[in-house]
Design a protein that fits this description.
Rossmann fold, three-stranded mixed beta sheet
Length: 298
């Protein structure tokens, strides 16, 4: 980078916040061009803060994908929401995402009340515009302009990659001049072991219904890299015996399906053959047990 461009280079942290299922993880995966944050149609899929680094010619944008902000009940959910709100303190710019096709008014109200407490730059992304009429978008822009002083309001579709580049351009302008904070080849700070846990959990979210996803957690018990094979043992934790039966399925069919789909994704991520062994354990009331939440990394 020449000296002239060095003086123009910008870098910093951007927190992506929004209600559950607003499309935060989809947006992060879209701008990265690869999947680091798991997705499903079920809300509250994301439980951890995921960091994704976008290297552009004149900037390094470090996005933090946060769990969905919502009125929480269990200790797990309270911790998840606390993580998301903490992002408001740890970043230079806030990207607030709203699902315009399925508004979550209580979450929006909660988030905007928090935004009013900060002087940080906030960019609003009105997501899933491909699912509503154009006239509605104009009305939404007008509505949100009255709710908060956003630096910019950008209608987008993260899934369809509509106007996503506009978000990058707007965020880039909002960052301070500064050097790269991570090596240029780095795109995330999460480990392969963490990604394995998330991939397995994504398959549980996508393949099971009712309360199962919200009652489940995944731990990676061993991760051994051999010459031509990665051997992984992982446990899926649920809170009741009946849920264990559902995860295993008839003659082990559901567990086999989860394992097969997870293994394929892990092999694609690592570029190596994988032997994945899954176990199902009943860990009663873990969602309200502080010690177990700490053990599971929440």
């Amino acid at each position: 980078m020449n000296k002239k461009n060095k003086n123009k280079f910008r870098s910093g942290f951007v927190g992506i916040i929004g209600a559950p299922n607003a499309g935060k993880s989809t947006l992060l995966n879209q701008v990265l061009g690869q999947k680091i944050s798991i997705t499903s149609k079920k809300p509250q899929t994301t439980r951890d803060r995921i960091l994704g680094i976008i290297n552009r010619p004149l900037s390094q944008i470090i996005f933090i994908d946060t769990p969905g902000i919502h009125k929480s009940t269990t200790l797990l959910n309270r911790r998840i929401v606390d993580q998301a709100l903490q992002a408001l303190e740890d970043v230079e710019v806030i990207l607030f995402m709203v699902d315009v096709s399925a508004r979550n008014y209580s979450a929006e109200k909660l988030i905007i009340s928090q935004l009013k407490k900060t002087a940080k730059t906030v960019v609003l992304a009105l997501n899933k515009i491909d699912l509503v009429k154009k006239a509605e978008i104009y009305m939404l822009v007008d509505e949100f302009q009255k709710l908060h002083e956003f630096k910019a309001i950008i209608p987008v579709s993260a899934q369809k990659n509509i106007q996503v580049k506009n978000i990058l351009e707007e965020v880039e302008k909002s960052l301070a001049v500064g050097p790269r904070l991570f090596p240029e080849e780095t795109f995330t700070d999460v480990s392969e072991k963490f990604m394995v846990k998330e991939i397995i959990r994504e398959k549980v979210f996508r393949l099971t219904g009712m309360e199962i996803p919200y009652s489940s957690a995944v731990t990676v018990d061993s991760f051994v890299v051999e010459k031509k094979l990665i051997v992984i043992h992982a446990s899926i934790h649920v809170i009741r015996d009946s849920q264990k039966g559902i995860i295993i399925g008839k003659k082990g069919s559901m567990l086999s399906k989860i394992g097969y789909k997870a293994r394929k994704d892990i092999e694609q991520m690592t570029g190596q053959k994988v032997l994945l062994k899954l176990f199902v354990k009943v860990t009663k009331n873990w969602t309200d047990n502080g010690r177990m939440l700490n053990e599971f990394g929440y």
